[in-house]
Amino acid sequence: MSVTIKDVARAAQVSVATVSRTLNGHGNVAEDVRRRVLAVANDLRYTPHAAARSLSSRRTHTLGVVLPDLHGEFFSELVRGVDLVAREHRLHLLVSSYHGRPDEQVAALRAMRGRVDGLLVMSPYAAAQVSIVEELASALPVVLINTQDASPDVLSLSVDNYGGAQAMTEHLIACGHRRIAFIAGPEDNFDAHERLRGYREALARLLPDASEWVLPGAFDEASGHAAGQALLAAGQRPDAVFAANDMMALGCLFSFVQAGVKVPDDIALAGFDDIPLARYVHPTLTTMRVNIAQLGARAARLLLTRLSADTGVQESQHNQEEPRRSEPLRPELIVRESGVRRGGGA
Question: Does 326 map to a domain?
């Protein structure tokens, strides 16, 4: 039979309430009693019953994370950052994805209710289900990550995708490139839209006589590879290629390697995100660094500002001075071998 909190209390010769306060980290327990209770709990291999704790404390000690996908280094890094903060606070994660499908997103979000103390949601799609997020936000703390037109009543954290794409386009132009192709992300993705907008505006501002050169992409290696093949088949090749994320840049790089095209001697190449693999391919990838793990950690800490360490979720206690939308995380230009200068400039 499993060991109960009553068994620990009996063996430690204290009350059940004292055991509960000790195991939950409350300070109103004498040090010698605390040590004795912890030693007994360890000897008996006592594990608190999660469901019982939730009923008594009205807390699940769990944070919910709902993402567009779980595949790829971006999402694994994001979850890693969230998990590091959760561990600091002895919390668990419940993670789900919806693969870009609005119906699955609604189901994933509703499934979190009652199972988590707070919720992190990344919803970069234009068709984001704002109503269900607002419905959940009335019941538990919610933080949105990179969500278009986030409700003013919901905490939000974003990346300056527009500014980052402008900075990369400016860099490629400063390196002497004039024919700059852009591999776009999904049409209904807010991040992709902002990165395309940054590319277009920087190109129009600095090279008003140049034509934009946009190829479709899906934020994965396969679409980057297909875009690379399309560029190689064009009558005139670009000087440089700017992919809206690193995964597409790596797929494009593979198509160039297959065709014997040298990067950056024949065509320069750049990405966006700075996933861990970007620095280990050959040539190493020039990119815009988004500290993805830091983004996850920052979002988790923002969520934890809405949670009370001892009494659970802060119900209906919104701090009116608390900013609804945090300052955007600004990407950093990382120049590596694939995008070195070719003919003067900065």
Answer: no
Range of the domain at 40: 5-48
Strands (E), the chain: 62-67, 92-97, 118-122, 142-145, 155-157, 180-183, 213-215, 240-243, 268-270, 287-289, 307-308, 312-313, 332-334
Any idea what the CATH number is for the domain that residue 245 is in? 3.40.50.2300
The pLDDT averaged over each successive group of 10 residues in the chain (346 residues) is 84 90 80 91 78 55 89 90 93 88 79 87 68 72 79 80 97 95 93 96 96 96 98 94 98 97 96 95 96 93 73 40 64 93 51
Nearest-angstrom CA–CA distance, 120 and 67: 8
- Same domain, residue pair 257 and 300: no
pLDDT score of 210: 93
User: What residues contact residue 219 under an 8 Å CB cut-off, 6+ apart?
Assistant: 185, 186, 189, 192, 244, 245, 247, 248
Q: What is the DSSP string of 282-308?
A: SSPPBEEE--HHHHHHHHHHHHHTTEE
Q: State how many domains the chain has.
A: 3
Residue 53 in tokens = 């704790």
Q: Which of 275, 271, 266, 283 is nearest to 231 (CA)?
A: 266
The three-class DSSP label of residue 37 is helix
Any bridge partners for residue 125, and if so which?
189
C-alpha Rg value of the chain to the nearest Å: 25
